Amino acid sequence: MAKASQRLGDWIEPHPHGIYVRPADAWIDPSQPTPKALVTHGHADHARGGHEAVWATPETLSIMECRYGPQAGNAVAYGETIRMGEVEVGFVPAGHVLGSAQIVLDYRGERVVVSGDYKRRPDPTCAPFEPVACDIFVTEATFALPVFRHPDTGDEIDKLVDRLHANPDRCVLVGAYALGKAQRVIAELRERGHEAPIFLHGALQRLCDLYAEHGVRLGELVPVAGASKKDMAGHVVMCPPGALNDRWSRRLPDPITAMASGWMRVRQRARQKNVELPLILSDHADWDELTDTLTEISPKEVWVTHGREEALVHWCAMRQMKARALALVGFEDEDD
201, 185 in Cβ contact below 8 A? Predict the structure, then answer.
């Protein structure tokens, strides 16, 4: 462990544009091009193009190539450990989206885990979160307020199916983020026996194809382009959130607008987006999952980023757990 004269984690440097691991001369989730990038997952606020070299899971590298073109990629499988300088680096499942990982750093007797984004609930599209004991745990705080307690996933999917069955002459148009959320909604429907064709906005096709190539069962997906209103009546149609209320949706049979997002807990957000059927379905940990994770891991220090840092730092302080907020830039809510 660290010597008394040495500050815990003084070899990890948080900067506005990423976390620098000094003895490895590498950056974690940098928001600007760097010579060496360790990437937790494929969302745009964590994975950017233009790095000279990237280390990530094979799935994350595939996502980056789909979005940014060829990468100077180095694939690191879950459970595999590599050495960068004096630092041992491992990738452990984060349960966020396909290929998402926590990055585990071991250096001179100290362990730091940079979790990226994570959730604790089962998800048929990705490997489940694995808690790792550590000295410093870097946690997200997207939904780090007690008001955010996500409902049961199955109940939300049932709401979608029930509305569909009650309106056989209409479609349910579900707005969902293109990476992770759209595929999860589809996979959750399939898990519950909904095997009917699901219609896709063209912007979702590439990433759905990528998920299928990596073994995620999405069933029959049909492009909206070329389909008639009669074809789509009584079916689920998936689109990016930005397409929910634009001219594109006019080709659909009297759509019931839905949106799958943790932010649907906030009724004003649903009203602002003209969402008729809010589906509270998040790929991030809610308040209880965040605090339960910190209790389970019990690190010496907690570093909090990406969201409602103050509430989680206060929760830690009330439990004599040392915590600090990081000021990283580039955060986006991913319509989650």
Answer: no
Closest Cα to residue 7, out of 324, 329, 328, 336? 324
Burial class of residue 65 (count of CB atoms within 10 Å of its CB; 0-12, 13-18, 19+): middle
C-alpha separations of 215 from 43, 125, 187 in Å: 20, 9, 11
Type of residue numbered 153? T
The structural domains of the chain, ordered by start, are 12-147+284-325 (3.60.15.10), 153-279 (3.40.50.12650)
Q: CA 92 to CA 130: how far, in whole Å?
A: 7
250-288 pLDDT per residue, tens: 899 999 999 999 999 999 989 988 999 999 999 999 999
In the prediction, which pLDDT does 6 show? 73
Place of tokens 């069933």: 219
Counting as low any pLDDT under 70, the low residues of the chain are 1-5, 328-335
Q: H/E/C letters for each residue in the chain? A: CCCCCCCCCCCEEEECCEEEEHHHCEEECCCCCCCCEECCCCCCCCCCCCCCCEEECHHHHHHHHHHHCCCCEEECCCCCEEEECCEEEEEEECCCCCCCEEEEEEECCEEEEECCCCCCCCCCCCCCCCCCCCCEEEEEECCCCCCCCCCCHHHHHHHHHHHHHHCCCCCEEEECCCCCHHHHHHHHHHHCCCCCCEEECHHHHHHHHHHHHCCCCCCCEEECCCCCHHHHCCCEEEECHHHCCCHHHHHCCCCEEEEECHHHHCHHHHHHCCCCEEECCCCCCCHHHHHHHHHHHCCCEEEEEEECHHHHHHHHHHCCCEEEECCCCCCCCCCC
Position 329 scores a pLDDT of: 57
What residues contact 306, with CB distance under 8 A and at least 6 apart? 45, 117, 140, 141, 142, 328, 331
End-to-end CA distance of the chain: 38
